[in-house]
Amino acid sequence: MLPIAEDEFLIEEANGQMVIDGVTVTQHSNGAKFVEGQTYLLFLWIDPSTRTAALSASDPLGVFLVDSNENLSPYIDEPYPFRTTLAKRFNNSVNELRQYLKK
Fold it and tell me: What does pTM read for this prediction?
């Protein structure tokens, strides 16, 4: 995966296995499980010096699925402030969010 191209970044993820003193320790992520072919809108904090990213808005609360009509649906299906704000301000629409960001 390394080196990272200029138009790429890595997302930090606490996930994997290690053998410590002969004992295999496994850590599973609490984050989103991404599906190949699905489009997502991710709210990220990106460190420009390393081009590594961490999900913001409390991982995975900053993950939204984008459907074929460019509508957003939250990865977490329960009410939380960030989800409510996107729904109220942008009608869960990628296009409305894009228009706002162009201003």
Answer: 0.72
Interior/surface letters 56-76, b for 16+ CB within 10 angstroms, e for the rest: ebebbbbbbbeeeeeebebbe
**How far apart are alpha carbons 40 and 55 in whole angstroms?**
12
Angle 35-71-73 from CA coordinates, rounded to 5°: 55
Q: Is 3 left (phi over 0), alpha (psi -120 to 50) or beta?
A: beta
CA angle 83, 102, 75 (to 5 degrees): 20
CA nearest to 1, candidates 74, 73, 9: 9
> How crowded is residue 95: how many other Cβ atoms within 10 Å of its Cβ?
12
Domain ranges of the chain: 10-102
* Phi (first) and psi of residue 100, to 5 degrees: -65, -45
pLDDT digits (tens, 9 = 90+) for 21-42: 999 998 777 678 888 899 999 8
